[in-house]
Protein: Ras-domain-containing protein
Organism: Caulochytrium protostelioides
Amino acid sequence: GGGAAASRRKILLKVVIVGDSGVGKSSLLDQYVNSKFNNHYKATIGADFLSKEIVIDDRRVTLQIWDTAGQERFQSLGVAFYRGADCCVLVYDVNNARSFENLASWRNEFLVQASPPGDPHRFPFVVFGNKIDVHESKRQVSEKRAVAWCQEQALAGGAAGVPATPGATGTTAASTHNSSMPLFLTSAKEGIQLEEAFKTIARMAFEKE
Ligand code: GTP
């Protein structure tokens, strides 16, 4: 964004968290917003959001963070939860390879449901590899593998089957390629990397404006 974009910048940013059931989406939100962690699993039904105000580059921003159900049977509440999102967080569990392999379909599903205006390949995504606090002997997804996937997605433009917005202009190679998809190895349990991750999210959502 250039200087003229500054006046158009939103101070409320909508962030949507998606990923398989049990990867820790609700826990990440609870830790980040309320500094709490609960060992007991409670399925999210539909979706819910929490807000948190942060200061970024001398600017006050309210993050409205939506936590969606990972379990398919609880996902019936439709597109309203995805619409208007400024950033999407794709979460997997570093100790569960399947949850990592499902990220591509979560990404596509998000783009289909949210149908963000403009070029979908440029929509900001951030990846969280959660439960990094668990002993390394349980690790199923190496950081190297995750980094490689993030780079691949960014280069490929990622979203197979998601049509570009009709009439969108500027579909040159440069504009269709999302330059980066940052990866954060997080722990909702121990509060690892959450502040950094959400600051990056806020910055990316700003730049998209
Ligand atoms: P759905 O609501 O079904 O989509 O699940 P979810 O992704 O919201 O998962 P949730 O936050 O409910 O966490 C699932 C389980 O993993 C709970 O028992 C949590 O206590 C545990 N958990 C979540 N995050 C972490 C973490 O960072 N470390 C560890 N060790 N456990 C975690």
